[in-house]
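Q&A log
Question type: sequence-to-structure
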Amino acid sequence: MTSELAARPRDAVVGRPLPHESAVLHATGAAVYTDDLAPTTSGVLTAWPVQSEHAHALVALDIAPALDVPGVVRVLTADDVPGVNDAGAKGDEPLFPTEAMYHGHALAWVLGESADAARAGAAAVQVAYEPLPSIITVAEAIEAGSFQGISPTIRRGDAAAALARAPHVFEGTSIVGGQEHFSLETHASLARIDSEGQVFIESSTQHPSETQEIVAHVLGVPNHRVTVECLRMGGGFGGKEMQPHGFAAVAAIGAQLTGRPVRVRLTRTQDLTMTGKRHPFHATWRAGFDDDGRILALETTLTADGGWSLDLSEPVLGRALLHVDNAYFIPDVTAHGRIAKTNKTSQTAFRGFGGPQGMFVVEDLLGRVAPLLGIPADVLRERNLYAPGQSTPYGQPVRHAERLRAMWADLRDSADLDARRDAIARSNAADPDLKRGLAITPVKFGISFTFTSYNQAGALVHVYRDGSVLVNHGGTEMGQGLHTKMLQVAATALGVPIETVRLAPTRTDKVPNTSATAASSGADLNGGAIKHACEQIRGRLASVAAGLLGLDEHDVRFGGGRVGGLGPGPVGVGCADADPTPSLSFAEVAAAAYHQRVQLWAAGFYRTAGLHWDADAMQGEPFKYFAYGVAATEVEVDGFTGATRTLRVDILHDVGDSLSPLIDLGQVEGGFVQGAGWLTLEELRWDETDGPGRGRLLTQSASTYKLPSLSEMPEVLNVRLLEHAAEDGAVYGSKAVGEPPLMLAFSVREAIRDAVAAFGPAGRSVELGAPSTPEAVFWAIEAARTAAGADAPADAATGRPADPAGVPVPADG
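Response status: OK
Response body:
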């Protein structure tokens, strides 16, 4: 069955390099998004938040002044909630709080005839604050013991004993910042109530079914009374997986109480100050190596900054622990995790979902200890790559490990790394103020939801009498090209031209109980469900065609919009022949099937096979497969400013047999750039002072939060998709592509580390802040220059120069 799922027809529409199905709409501005519907909706009201001016305080509201503002219709408070006053999955996120938990927390919502009226009304609400102590940083949380949620541990072997035996032991701390999603479209919802009391919500959400469920329990009604539709999103990146639900609930309450449609559309500053980000992580570690540089053991504790509530912090932390090994075999491991509770926005899903933060620990560790071991960083990494037959610390075999090693060798040769290293060394020797660096890093990323129940999907496919096809599925389109791939899957499965297939907007009343479009699983899950539905229809049509053509139904083939017999030449599953004789058009067979009263629609279902996971023991096989990638990056660093220029990037990425190569290339390029932004540019800053602004987000606009732009793009970007890489058991042999490319950007940061090292003495470890902004790079250069100028004696035990910075700490004994 698995090979049948992966097999492709000879004339498949999947695999063709087609443009995004909405590319023209995007480029012309004709694409319709959630808030575009508001101006065409009669009588719509706008909701505006009353935001807390303290990071932590008890609050009391006087809403009377707002009701005197012209155009204000109503002020929503906790007293207006007919059901449960909570918008979270864990019951820890009151929709209307009496205790402000972060600076910018929405305390109430004002409904106005216009945005200006609602904003003026919100400004008129009087809030009495009773300030409480606040925790802003992870360090403060650790010191105060402020934690929430679970504290999982992954163990294999005896890391403590292995460290005691290891010839070389190092310890250190790795800290990486968060990241703002900064989707072009901010959070938006539009709610209305029909004449039958049905609540209909347009929402920019990655998880319509959960939006439906949260809204239903806030309203105190069953799920079937709430319908959620998502036309498309102007970006999501995980930020719209959990956090749209509360905004949809506010709009729904307002619509129910006023009888008028209500819209919520956050401004850019509101979006930045009210919604969660990628989790910052703090990690301490001890790692042991043998004399050849092979990792013997790792002990680490990862602390995620969860913000004020749990949101998705528990599964994010879990995935971080599952990826702390990245692509490297570590025989003995103990990895602890915990979630800090701070008075900041509730941090949430972000592309990679904790995987990047987990990988950061081992990549930072290897980059820092390589010079102390006297081994080039790329050699150290290659020496520790997984080999066939090895398994992860949580017990999952690493299938196709040989593919990862082959990709490493391929890219090393195709990017001509050895010759370029020689050229870089000559350039660095000649220029004291401008240094170049080069690094190659791998990616091994697990694909599936770690919450096993989410690994399911449904679809509803209609074939009409004229042979046209309508597809409904539970995935959402956020610009990533999911709908394009699903059109290609449906066209391939039915053997029709893609022009005859249309996708309907994602709606909870068409496909129920859907999982979030997340975990890079959108194409795997929804593609499997669509294929299942199409195959049911095709089976019925084959019987009809067999009767019309005088064939055995097993000899009927579909392809190119025609249905015919088994002709000469090779054929594959569901394949059309080179010259099928006799044949009918797909439309003719569909019309005949209708007249024979044959069902022309089908509900498809897919569940990922082979998964088993014990979340308490943190052992099992939570992933269907691993996606692999390798990237090599060359940078140039300015010794006066710390500014970095990315000169060249070479990427080889494994997407299996691509469903849509142009879409996948775009995802690899975009993911890499977003990862580079996280690691080198995008720095979130909160006010950590003890003044009245404590806890306020300081980077709350595009002028203070630096996003990657064209000037940060590599001057040369070479991207290849691995060929002949079909993944058995996945839809048409494809692999997920959404999240894994982001982690290819570790090569950028490690190349910067390599360049900074050239400012200092050989054998010195370079500590580099994350994100590695020009400021962080400059201070790393200054430390390297200080070490180069210091008349420090060599370490008698190692023969290496002493490191004034002292990071990481060699514990070789």
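Response note: Confidence is low (pLDDT under 50) at residues 568-578, 791-807.
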